[in-house]
């Protein structure tokens, strides 16, 4: 055991957040903590770190438990560089190293057994603490979280909020904590950095607990889910997708138990009512006492939104909804992305992904005619009626209540139908009376999406529709869009959302390239991994398009496309380059191996650490090149 929560209760201002939470986390466990916004997930972290105390119950931790947590406001030393700040996570190693340097100076004149023995002990500690590889680890993690080498010398005082958080994440990953507490760790990370973090955590040999709305991230990084609901915590074995299945089975069982208990209670209350004043008064009183002591099964508070949204029919567009030909987008003469070729048919969903600054929102604005294309052609199909969801939410009237705001798209619909539809988007009871100005960002997003989906537009253009939505709200949105009969174009960083809905993926690269793929996010991700292995860099990816004149539905999902002549030429060129590069790197690796065995190097720890890092880099490069060569050769078969 690392730590245990035992019957924890916690309230704020009379509002009971946690009521009887109990669970335990053991060494090496990879735990996802999920629940609605406000359910108490962050409160659990604060109780564990000691930032807050429970009203009752016990938080039990093993002696000396080292907890690493990324603070919302990362504190950095003024005047230090990004690289220095990252290395500050290794204070223990630095202290050992400083003591070794002091003893080395002393050993010039003092050769006593005590000094030599102390120095040998420090050498052992230094090695066990990773002293020969810590600098390489720090650099690899800085690159992973998105700091290019040229940024390592930046003063931390000039970092943006997002950069500070990424640097804080790097220091946390480098810490020697027994358990990491990760609160929305994918915030401020682009797609590449998120995927790097997923790989890092899968290989991480210590425990961590992660709070995240990124369900795809939870799927790839957790082997246990703890759901906080109605003030209690329920543990499920498996990742997020397995949790969804198991939770539904548990809820069905709980609902049956609740209904059976309610039937028994009603029958018993009827017996008490009829016999309390009659001949069976004693029995009736006994049963009343029994009911008062009975532990009640709670009704299921389902977060799933089954049933029909009763969406109105939308006017059918032509079969070809959108076509772009060699489209280039940007501002003035600055091109953000070029070579964009889209063929979107009626009823399909195009998911647009890419790092910040690659032109995702610019592409939407260009398609909508709000911005001129730099070159290329955009053709919308017949009978297209577009509805646009903007991250700015500027189409909401702050003074309206929810009912009045929704009537802007449904002026003649009765109140019952409006209330029923809004309930599907988690607006229930007194929520309807709220003013738009009083809604949270997530609530405003849900209202705007509900209006748009109900509006009978036959093409929806959505810019990050899941931003600010917790998991239940995302599930509600996905259910509504599942039933939507029109065509959807969406920018999203939510890979789980894209997996469920997308039929095509358009990936915009930071180098201005565009990759089109027929399939959902996972299929695209798996294909891209093969291409990157074959070509060595994502920047050289070829585009993938459906065969001309052939509907995408005729292809098997994830099927490998036929290579074009240009793609074959590029693969052959890359194989030749690898064959030319390999001998030189292998010779370097042999030279470094010989150098490490020289006596004068073995006693120079700084030089040995540098040579060791260079040797590891060379070996990693050799392995990567051989794997890339084999993958490229396989593609050419």
Explain this structure:
By secondary structure, the protein is α/β, with parallel strands linked by helices. Among the domains are: about 240-295; about 320-560, 3-Layer(aba) Sandwich (Rossmann fold), CATH 3.40.50.300; about 565-635. Helix content is about 45%, strand content about 20%. The chain has 20 helices and 19 strands. The protein has helices at about 40-50, 80-85, 90-105, 115-130, 135-145, 160-175, 190-205, 215-220, 240-275, 280-295, 360-365, 400-405, 415-425, 440-455, 470-485, 495-500, 520-535, 565-595, 600, 605-635; strands at about 5-10, 15-25, 30-35, 55-60, 65-70, 180-185, 205-210, 225-230, 230-235, 320-330, 335-340, 345, 350-355, 375-380, 385-390, 460-465, 485-490, 505-510, 515-520. The strands form 4 sheets. The protein has a 6-stranded mixed beta sheet, sandwiched between helices. Strands 15-16-17-13-18-19 form a 6-stranded mixed beta sheet, with helices on both faces. Strands 10, 11, 12 and 14 form a 4-stranded antiparallel beta sheet that branches. β18 and β19 (about 515-520) form a beta hairpin. α5 packs antiparallel against α6, α9 packs antiparallel against α10 (about 280-295) and α14 runs parallel beside α15. It is globular and about 100 Å long. Residues about 535-560 have low confidence and may be disordered.
């Amino acid at each position: 055991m690392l730590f245990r929560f035992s019957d924890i209760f916690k309230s704020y201002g009379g509002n009971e957040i946690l009521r009887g939470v109990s669970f335990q986390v053991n060494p090496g466990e990879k735990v996802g903590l999920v629940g609605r916004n406000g359910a108490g997930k962050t409160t659990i972290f604060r109780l564990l770190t000691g930032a807050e105390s429970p009203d009752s119950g016990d938080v039990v931790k093993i002696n000396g438990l080292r907890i690493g947590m990324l603070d919302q406001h990362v504190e950095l030393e003024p005047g230090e560089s990004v690289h220095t700040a990252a290395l500050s996570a290794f204070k223990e190693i630095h202290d050992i190293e400083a003591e070794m340097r002091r003893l080395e100076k002393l050993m010039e004149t003092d050769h006593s057994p005590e000094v030599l023995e102390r120095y040998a002990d420090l050498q052992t500690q230094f090695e066990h603490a990773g002293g020969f590889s810590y600098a390489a680890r720090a650099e690899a993690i800085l690159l992973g979280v998105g700091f290019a080498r040229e940024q390592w010398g930046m003063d931390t005082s000039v970092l943006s909020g997002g950069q500070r958080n990424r640097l804080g994440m790097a220091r946390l990953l480098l810490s020697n904590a027994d358990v990491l507490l990760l609160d929305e760790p994918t915030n401020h990370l682009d797609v590449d950095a998120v995927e790097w973090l997923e790989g890092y955590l899968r290989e991480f040999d210590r425990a961590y607990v992660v709070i995240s709305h990124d369900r795809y991230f939870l799927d790839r990084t957790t082997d246990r889910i703890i759901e906080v609901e109605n003030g209690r915590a329920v543990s499920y074995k498996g990742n997020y997708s397995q949790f969804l299945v198991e939770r539904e089975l548990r809820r069905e069982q709980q609902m049956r138990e609740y209904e059976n208990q309610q039937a028994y209670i009603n029958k018993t209350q009827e017996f008490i009512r009829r016999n309390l004043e009659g001949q069976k008064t004693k029995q009736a009183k006994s049963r009343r006492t029994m009911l008062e002591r009975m532990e009640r099964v709670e009704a299921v508070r389902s977060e799933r939104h089954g049933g029909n949204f009763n969406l109105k029919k939308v006017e059918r567009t032509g079969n070809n909804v959108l076509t772009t030909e060699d489209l280039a987008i940007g501002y003035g003469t600055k091109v953000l992305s070029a070579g964009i070729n889209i063929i979107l048919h009626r009823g399909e969903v195009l998911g647009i992904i890419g790092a910040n600054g690659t032109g995702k929102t610019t592409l939407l604005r260009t398609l909508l005619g709000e911005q001129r294309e730099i070159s290329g052609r955009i053709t919308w199909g017949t009978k297209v009626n577009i509805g646009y969801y903007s991250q700015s939410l500027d189409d909401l009237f702050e003074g309206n209540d929810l009912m009045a705001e929704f009537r802007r798209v449904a002026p003649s619909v009765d109140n019952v139908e409006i209330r029923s539809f809004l309930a599907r988007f988690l607006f229930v009871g007194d929520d309807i009376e709220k003013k738009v100005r009083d809604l949270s960002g997530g609530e405003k997003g849900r209202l705007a999406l509900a209006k748009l989906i109900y509006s009978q537009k036959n093409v929806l253009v959505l810019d990050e529709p899941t931003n600010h939505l917790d998991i239940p709200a995302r599930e509600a949105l996905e259910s509504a869009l599942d039933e939507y009969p029109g065509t959807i174009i969406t920018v999203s960083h939510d890979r789980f959302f894209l997996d469920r809905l997308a039929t095509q993926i358009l990936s915009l690269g930071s180098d201005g390239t565009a990759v089109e793929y027929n399939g959902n996010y996972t299929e695209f991700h798996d294909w891209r991994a093969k291409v990157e292995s074959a070509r060595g860099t994502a920047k050289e990816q070829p585009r993938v398009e459906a065969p001309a004149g052939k509907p995408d539905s005729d292809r098997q999902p994830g099927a490998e496309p036929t290579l074009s002549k240009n793609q074959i030429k590029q693969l052959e060129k890359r194989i030749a380059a690898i064959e030319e590069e390999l001998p030189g790197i292998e010779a370097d690796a042999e030279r470094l191996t010989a150098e490490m065995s020289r006596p004068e190097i073995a006693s120079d720890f700084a030089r040995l650490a540098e040579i060791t890092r260079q040797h590891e880099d060379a070996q990693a490069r050799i392995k990567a090149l051989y794997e890339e060569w084999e993958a490229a050769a396989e593609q050419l078969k």
